[in-house]
Please model this.
Amino acid sequence: MEKKSLSKTSELPLMLGYFVFSIFLNSLGNALTVSLNLGSALWTAAAVNVAHATALQLSWILFVEGFLVILLNLFLVGHLSVRRVVGNLIFMVSFSYLVGGLSGELVTLGIGNLALPLRIVLDCVGIVLIATAISIYQRVNLIMHPCDDLMQILRFKFFKGNPSTAQLVSFIPPIVAIGVVFGFTQQIFALNIGTIFALIFQGALVGIADQRVFPTLRHHDLEI
Model:
């Protein structure tokens, strides 16, 4: 995998364009999966289950979850990076508002009332959009969600650039969290076909997008 440094000022507008486009794709993909209610992504599903078990607000659980992943990322890279931490926090806050707004609009439009087969297809399309967006903003590497940052660190530091393996390993913490909560409550929430599709295919889809979507865009300024 070629790794470039974003050193030319002339490249910055192009990188920002890629980044804005990827944020829109990711927000739309997540909004689709949320509004269709056919299974949340694993990190979100873990937060939902912890929220049910503790009676705490989901927004707080998501924030704590993201903060813990930031700490894990810093441990894995072996040094404090203010740029990484601030970028993760900015992404977490702004992204949650975008997803909330778009999912609300989709619910208002009645997307949840579509026939089940079409909802399943759209839910899988949502996962594809998420994976494509992750591929783009990981390559741009300005700021990203801490969970996607974790996947990128694992991918290039431990798994020789393999996105499928890195994605599966990055899913271990939420899977463990769901398992622990289930052990106490005997209940599981927010798991459905979309969750399974993401678990099996999201990493591979990121790798495909690396090659097929903006193929001239390479990973910039990796800090692992």
In short: Residues 82-108 form the longest helix (27 residues). DSSP finds nine helices and two strands in the chain. The longest strand covers residues 3-4. The chain has one domain: 11-217.
